[in-house]
Amino acid sequence: MSRKYKVLVVDDSTAMRMLIKASLQDSEFDVVAEAGDGGEAVQSFKVSAPDLVLLDIVMPVMGGVEALGQIMAQDKNAVVIMVSSLGTEDAVREALKTGAKNFLQKPVEQESLLKILRNTVDLFMGR
Amino acid sequence: MGAKFIGQFLLEKELITREALLAATEQQLRVNLTLGALAVAKGFLSEAQADAINLEQQRSDKRFGEIAIARSMLNSQQLDELLLAQKAQRVFLGEILIQQGHISREKFEAELVLFNQEQERSAELVKVNLHSLPQYGVIEDFLDMTLKILLRVAKEQVKITSVGYTALQCAYTFAQRVKGDQQFDYVLALPENMVRILCQNFLRIDCAVVNELALDAIGEVVNIISGSGCAKLSARGKEATLDPPRVISGAAPANAVCIGMSSIEADFEVRFYF
Description:
The complex is a heterodimer.
Chain A (H helix, E strand, L loop, with lengths): L4 E6 L3 H11 L4 E7 L2 H11 L3 E4 L8 H11 L5 E5 L4 H10 L3 E4 L4 H15 L3
Parallel strand pairs in A: 1-2, 1-3, 3-4, 4-5
Helix pairs in contact in A: 2-3
Chain B lengths: L5 H7 L5 H14 L3 H7 L5 H12 L5 H7 L5 H14 L3 H7 L5 H27 L4 H19 L4 E6 L7 E9 L3 E7 L1 H12 L8 H24 L4 E3 L3 E3 L8 E6 L4 E7 L1
Helix pairs in contact in B: 3-4, 9-11, 10-11
C-alpha cells in the first residue's frame, strides 16, 4: 500500500479548510488536524506531528509567518507550505526565509494543490 | 442607467414579466448544453471525467476545453467538434422570449438596439468616472481582481454599473484592511441572495440561509480578492499587506468610493474606504 502523508491544515477560514480537505480527499494526503490561527497551529503541530503543514499567512491572534518561525524552532526539518491570498513579493520572500518549503497563492485549485504537495514531498521527503 | 443584461433591461422597462424572464432563462439553461454535457453525449468523456473538469473549472479561470486538453482527456479535434456543436445549438435569450410569445420580434429587435446604445454610453461613463478618481490606480487594480476572482471562484459574471460616493443599502458588508504604501478598507457590500449564491458557488454546497459558514466563505472570497490586489500593487513596487477580513455594520463613511456592480443575480457594491 502506498504511503499516506499526514497533513495539518491551518487557516482562519472554516470554508477554506473545507475546500482544502475536499481537494485532498481520496489522495495520498490525509488531513489529520486543523487549526484556525497561528497559536493553535503551533500547539497542533506538537500534538499531531504531521508530515506536512499547509499554513495560511493572514490570520488573527498569531499570523502564519510567526507561527512558521515557532514551528521551525520546534523542528528544523518541518515541511511547511504557505497557502495564502497574499501573493506579494515581500510575503513570499519572508515566508521562504523563515523556512517555508513552498508557497501557493489562493484561490486553491485541486490540481495545483496536489502538484505542489507531491513536488514538496519529492524534494524534501525523498518519496 | 448602468450596465446590465438584456433580460434585466426588458424587465425594468416592464416589457416582460419576472416570470417570463425566469422561464426563458431556465429554458436557455436546458437548451444550451455545456461542453461537458456535449462531450458526455458524444461519448468523448465519462460523466466522472466531465465532473472532474467542472470541479477544477470552479476553482480556476481556465476554460473547460483548456483543462480537458491539459489533462489529455480530449484532443484538439474533439474540442473543435464540440465547440462547433455548441455554437450550432446555442439559443439566445431574446430568441426564447420571442418563441415563448413574451415579446414580438420587432419590439425585441428595436429594444436590442436601444440596449446596445445604453451599454456603450454606460461603459464610457463608468470609464470616465473611474479615471477621474484620485485613487484610480489602486481602485483599478482591486476592481480588476474583483471581476476575475468572482468569475473564477464563484462563477459570477459581473459588470461595473456606476461610480460614485453614495452607498447602496446592502444586508451584509465585508471589509478587509489593506496596509502599506496605501491604507484603505476594501469593502464588498452584498444583498442576502448574493451572499447565498456566492457561498453556494464557492463551496459547492447548498446554502439556503445565510449562516456563519456562508459569512466565513464570503470573507474568504474577499480575502482572495484583496490578496490578489495586493500582489498587483507589489508587482508595481508598492508595499502592501492585509489584516484578516471582517463583517462590518453601520453607514459607509462620507468619503467612501462606491462602485456599483451588477450580476444576473443582484446588484451589489464594492467600496473603498480611504
